Amino acid sequence: MDPRPADIVKMCVEQFDKVLEPYNCIQVMATIQDLEDKGVAKCSMPSALPEYRHIMNFTSGCDWAELTYLRYAVPPLMVLCLVGNMLNILIYGLPYFEGSSSVHFLRAKAIANMVFMFSRILEVIHAISTEPVGWLEPLFWKSRPYLMMVSNISGTLSTWLTLMVTMETVMCIMTPFIFRKYCTKKMTWIVLILSGIAATLLHVAIVIVTDVKEIVQVKQYIQNFKKENAACWYLQAAFRVRNNRDFEIYRRFYATATMAVSIVIPTVAMLVCTFLIINKFTFKNLGETFSQRRKCVIRMTVATSATHLFFEGPATLTHSASAFQGDNYGELMCLLNHGNNLGSLVNATIPFFVFLFCNQQFRHMTVMYVKAALETDEVKRKSYYSQAGMRFGRMSRIETERSMAESRLVSRPSNV
């Protein structure tokens, strides 16, 4: 009577302490039996031999591109992303932005950007390590579907939040009465919670349709070339990530839905909204229609949307083309995909620096906030924090008046 697959798996767990597929288990046991029949024994020090195979290498142009940007581009982007988005979150909390509903979306977007960036941390460590590391290989591969899910959730949220800020700004410009009625802090939190739930339900499919399999091979090691029969055998494992064939239809539906909901529709909608904002805000004389704070938020919205469209727009074409090619995109499509991944990481990093370059008010608040953080004197620190929450023009007038007053006091002769 042939053993059941479950019995074969149990046998491998008892003998090798690994959960293997029945076919792989039988293959390993047959190879070991054949080697032992030839007089090849098990290595006496298997711990000194590589337990896992580091499958990332420079064997193709696509592998080379992936390893290059993971090793040299992503680490500095992580540092800039952390610094920039943390400053964004802190500056959005200044009194200057109180009462703005859009700032809650921008704050949540900064958090989503950091989560998106640092969900790649194991990929970077795995790419930097040239030799397989015993604790890293199983952690990296077994956590990969979950980190991919987290990355996609945060990336989708970042895109949706950018779209929400852009749509809110369009409502503020086109229909100010509806904007004041519906764009409240309470509605913002409701939208944020519903968006998080929707993004999670959309991308939880990654864990369902993705399988991580450990494949074990029997390797021979020659301890001493001068001695006969000096070879010994040891086990070496490698991990493979592949799609679960039982959920193929579900996977294709998920790929199509993700392309539409996370990339194509938001990108097109953002393009239309950005055009409306620029058309209204640039070519119309708004005068005193908007407060200085709202104008600052509008400029930040335009910068955010333009940056997103610049770096994420090409991903729409790539995903649209790849959706009709199944799993084998080809070398060119693979390179384009890695290019879009790098563009997404840059997009998660640069909003703070774009605001810093394009917005004088934001630049003033950043300088004052950094000065306050570095200042040791308590009185000066409070003064800098107070100046960070002021309008740039108003602060300039205060500084001018203070300088004039101080110069008069200094130039006035003393009667003492």
UniProtKB/TrEMBL annotation:
Domain G-protein coupled receptors family 1 profile positions = 84-355
Which UniProt keywords are listed? Membrane, Transmembrane, Transmembrane helix
Q: Which cellular components does GO assign to this protein?
A: membrane
Location within or outside the cell:
Membrane
Q: Does the keyword Zinc-finger apply?
A: no
**Spans traversing the lipid bilayer:** 77-98, 149-177, 189-209, 253-278
Protein name according to UniProt: G-protein coupled receptors family 1 profile domain-containing protein
The opening ranks of the lineage are: Eukaryota, Metazoa, Ecdysozoa, Nematoda, Chromadorea
